[in-house]
């Protein structure tokens, strides 16, 4: 994918997909949202999901790529609505976090 850049990763950081630490001077793949993963891990992930596993940033379709079908592919909304899709995903994630925090603090009973 063109939107993913290669980047040297500092030792001690871990890949959020496989949970293994990066080795010294190992190169990772940085998504447009700035999260970094092992290249193999993120390539496999993006074949199934079209979003970042950490923040759910929706990856743009590549030139010439079909925008229909596939888990996590929001092509049905059209490529011109990418910003709207990103906003909806962020709000949805925030709402889920608020509900989880309220449940954990006892402010809301689980249904």
UniProtKB/TrEMBL annotation:
Q: Name one GO molecular function term.
A: ubiquitin protein ligase activity
The entry's keywords: Metal-binding, Zinc, Zinc-finger
Classification via PROSITE patterns: ZF_RING_2
Annotated RING-type domain ranges read 15-56
> Pfam families of this UniProt entry?
zf-RING_2
Q: Can you list the GO cellular component terms from the UniProt entry?
A: nucleus
Q: Transit peptide: is it a keyword of this entry?
A: no
Biological-process GO terms, alphabetical: ubiquitin-dependent protein catabolic process
Q: Enumerate the CDD domains for this protein.
A: RING-H2_PA-TM-RING (cd16454)
Which PANTHER family does UniProt cross-reference here? RING ZINC FINGER-CONTAINING PROTEIN, SI:CH211-59O9.10
- Its protein name is RING-type domain-containing protein
What organism is this sequence from?
Answer: Gossypium raimondii
């Amino acid at each position: 994918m063109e939107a993913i850049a290669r980047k040297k990763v500092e030792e001690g950081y871990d890949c959020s997909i496989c949970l293994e630490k990066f080795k010294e001077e190992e190169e990772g793949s940085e998504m447009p949202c700035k999260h970094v993963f092992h290249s193999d891990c993120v390539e496999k992930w993006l074949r199934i999901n079209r979003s970042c596993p950490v923040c759910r940033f929706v990856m743009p379709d590549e030139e010439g790529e079909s925008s229909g079908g596939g888990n996590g592919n929001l092509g049905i909304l059209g490529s011109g609505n990418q910003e709207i899709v990103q906003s909806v995903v962020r709000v949805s994630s925030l709402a889920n976090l608020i509900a989880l925090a309220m449940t954990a603090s006892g402010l809301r009973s689980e249904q």
